[in-house]
Amino acid sequence: MIDTDVEPTVVLTDGEKNADPENLLASLPLKPQDRYKFIRSIGFGGMKGVLLVHDRDTGRDVAMAIMPDFRDRPLQDLNRFVREAQITAKLEHPNIVPVYDIGIDMSGSPFFTMKYLRGSSLAVVLKRLRAGDMEMMEKFPQSRLLQFYLRVCNAVAFAHSMGICHFDLKPGNIHCGDYGEVQVIDWGLAGDISTGLPNQIKGTPGYMAPELVSGTGKPGKAADIYALGGILYAILTLDSPLAGLPQQEILRRTVAGKIPQPSLLVPRLLPALEAVCMKAMALNPADRYSDPMEIRSDINAILAGYAAQAEQASAMRNCFLFLRRNLAAVTIIILLILSGVLAYLAFLVS
Known about the structure:
The chain is an alpha+beta fold. It has three domains: 10-115, Phosphorylase Kinase, domain 1 (2-Layer Sandwich), CATH 3.30.200.20; 119-312, Transferase(Phosphotransferase), domain 1, CATH 1.10.510; 317-349. 41% of the residues lie in helices and 17% in strands. The chain is built from twelve helices and twelve strands. The strands form four sheets. A five-stranded antiparallel β-sheet has the order 2-3-4-6-5, covered by helices on one side. Strands 7-9-10 form a three-stranded antiparallel β-sheet. The model has no long low-confidence stretch (mean pLDDT 86).
């Protein structure tokens, strides 16, 4: 559930209004201490830890997010912890990790439980692919990663339809299960449009939208679209946008819109996929896709052999794609025409 070797989330400025911690905790139910049996620690990162526990009531193993040191942390961390559980619980979708329970334990510490995810994050998958791991290369060819990406688009589109923006989409927050499951996790920075989005800059350098880094734009759906473009960039190049640069330089180039085209890193990259990626990561939010389903539509078109909207394909390009899609039929027609011509010529000679 937590990968330590992934891009860190940063909050550059924070204008959140903090709820009273006592009132916030009082709103959570007190849970019996003996319901959950500790099995092992999964990991600690950011503001929370995750444990693997056995739920005696249901007889299944679940992941438990905990915040044992919440009293020593800024109040907004507690707000985010509780909000992550409550927002994620609202998002019932097959590609979003489900939350089962929320409460406080006998010591007064908040917790919530969720599905225990087997497998690894997309960030780990890409890192191993980048290292030339043959097992990963066989298990996760680009075609499969693109299918995973389509499911991420589905999840984000659903969240947007519910008025929720993730604000920290990145490979580290996409979980790839052992049996093909794909789930978007870690909704701790998510915002609810219906209750007003926080006026703050947050996210992960390389995946943060320029308007958020510069502070010139209000957080919104366009920021998630940009991050989806960044994830596609990572799938195509096996690395994050502007990888290897210092954080401040990444932010500076993001604001300037100086994102190198993926084909500079992967020369044989399909131009249509690059066009989708760069449209999603456009400097001006108005130039990006307006909805994750538009990205999905373009990717599906490319996989099916059609031109993508982002390509602005010429008539010649569309003709070429038509011929390639219908190569067998075109070949048969050409052979029939040639046979007819040869038969006619033979008739004239005779």
